Every structure is written in structure tokens, then in C-alpha cells.
Amino acid sequence: MTEIGIAGAGRVAQALGRLLRERGEPVASVASRTPAHAAEAARFIGGIEVVSYEDLARRCPRVLIAVSDDALVDVAGRLAHSGMRNGAVLHTCGARGVAAVEELARAGVACGVLHPLQAVNSPQQGVAALPGAAFAISGEGEAAAWARQIVALLDGTPLHIQTGREALYHAAAVMASNYVVALIDASVELLRAAGVPEDEALRVIRPLVETNARNALTLTPERALTGPIERGDADTVALHLAAFRDAAPGTRELYCTLGLRVLDLARRRGLDKAYADRLERCLRNG
Ligand SMILES: NC(=O)c1ccc[n+]([C@@H]2O[C@H](COP(=O)([O-])OP(=O)(O)OC[C@H]3O[C@@H](n4cnc5c(N)ncnc54)[C@H](OP(=O)(O)O)[C@@H]3O)[C@@H](O)[C@H]2O)c1
Prior knowledge:
- By secondary structure, the protein is of the alpha/beta class.
- 57% of the residues lie in helices and 12% in strands.
- The chain has helices spanning 11-22, 35-45, 53-59, 72-81, 102-106, 123-129, 141-153, 166-193, 198-219, 221-224, 228-231, 234-242, 251-268, 273-285, and strands at 4-7, 27-31, 49-50, 62-65, 88-91, 110-116, 134-139, 157-159.
């Protein structure tokens, strides 16, 4: 079987390495910048060797690169300079297409992308969350076939993004992921200012967050919308804005920016123009 090498020792590298190995794939070696991290990744993935990037290029005809986005070009260059001339490489960066590893493509390696559309905040959580996720995949020949094979092994859904639109796709992923986390943080900040301790705040908003996420995802955002903007209650929005004195700088701005997006949804649902215009003035003037 064609040996697989993992480049990188972070959360995604460890989770994907372990999942592939558990499914019988010949994951053989890991290389990373920090030797201690590579050793930790080898232990987590199970029974694989720690090697240098140079040896990874020489020994493994298939390499999965899962390093920080900013290190991707450099790591691809190191593999190319170490003599990787054929086989296949996939990288896990969602914002960049195959062009990010073009040095390997120029050397004769089939290159592609395998970006999990899932949040991985630890190797263990990644092992639990990646099976069944969607994966943006692209690439040519052997790389494309390998990406499709990995998605099938993980019972995932393949997603094809137009070439050149990777950054838009990734911005969408970031908004559905990290921005949701930031919104929860802003809500907790306001609850703390209203006298609710953080752990209790997280507990009490959980049903609200989960219900709205479920409604938006199943009914569509337009049909899921409730609240003062949807009802046209401009006085309530004005009360909110007046109460923002104690909030961290930026929270009021965030409220107004997102409020305008909520207003768009309310207009699409048929909110009366006079109410909508009054709300818009409130939100634009902060
Ligand atoms: N985490 C997610 O939710 C997620 C989801 C989808 C896709 N991704 C993508 O997966 C890739 C890895 O993300 P991650 O979250 O797993 O990152 P991570 O846990 O922060 O790990 C990053 C890895 O990159 C290596 N690295 C950092 N700077 C480097 C450099 N200058 N030269 C060489 N190696 C360097 C680190 O090596 P050492 O530890 O050895 O120093 C580390 O192993 C990224 O492309 C990311 O966009 C992440």
C-alpha cells in the first residue's frame, strides 16, 4: 500500500491521521516544525514514525499537509526541495486552492485540497466530529481521487468550490463557526453586565442558541426570525442602545451592524416600511 505521511502536528493533522489509521489506511510517518509536537502527534495517531520533512518527502508517496495557513507555502517548498517528484499531496487550508502548493505541482506531484467544514479544537474532539462532516475538495488526478477516497472513508459529504472562490467559501465557514462563538461571547458579556455570572449565562442561553440555530438551519433564516426587529419594535431597540454604556467597546457596533442584517431579514418577511425605516435610523445612528 502507498504510505501516507502527515505534515504538521496540530489538531487537524492528529485527528485526520488517527481517523485514517483507524480505518486501515497506511499512515506511516509524521513530520512537523517542533520535534516534541511531532512525537505527541505520533503517539496520538498510533504507532507511526517521527521523521524530518526531507524524509517524509522521500518515504511517503502521499502526504497530507495540515500546518498553519501561513506555513503552507514554505512546507510545500520544503517537500519539493527534498525530492518529492510524484505521488499526491493534499492540504487542509480552506482559504487557498491548489495554487498554494504549486511548487509541488511544478515538481510533478498531483496536488489537491481537503478542507473539513468542521471546527476542530482538539485532536480528540476532531476524531469525534470529523466523520460525517462536509469536506471541500479539489485537485487533479491522483490527488482528487485520494481526496474523494478520504471523504468516503469518513462518511463525509464532498463539496466542490469554484476555483478562485476559495477565500469566499472560507469566509462563509468562518462566519458560521468562529463568528457564532464570538456572538455567544458578546451575549455573555451583556449578561455579566446585567449581573448573571458567566457559567450561569452559558447555561441559560444554551436553549436559545440551539433553538435558533436549529430553526434557521431547518426553516431558513428568514422564517426562523423572531424578536423586536422582526416585530418593528423600535422603542425596544432604542432601549438596548441606551443600555450599552457598560458594554465593552465594539459590542454596540456589533449589535448595530448585525441589527441591520436582521432588519434585511425582517424586510424580506414583509416588515412595514415605516417601521423598518425607523429601525434603520436607530441602528445607523447607534
Ligand atoms: N482547527 C480547525 O477547526 C480547522 C478546520 C478546518 C481546517 N483547518 C486547517 O487545518 C490546518 C491546520 O490547522 P490546525 O487548527 O490543526 O492548526 P494547529 O493546531 O495550530 O497546528 C498548526 C501546525 O502547523 C505547524 N506550523 C505552524 N507554523 C509553522 C511554520 N512556520 N512552519 C512549519 N510548521 C508550522 C505547527 O507545528 P508545530 O506544532 O510542530 O510547531 C502545528 O503542527 C490549517 O490549514 C487550517 O486552516 C483547521
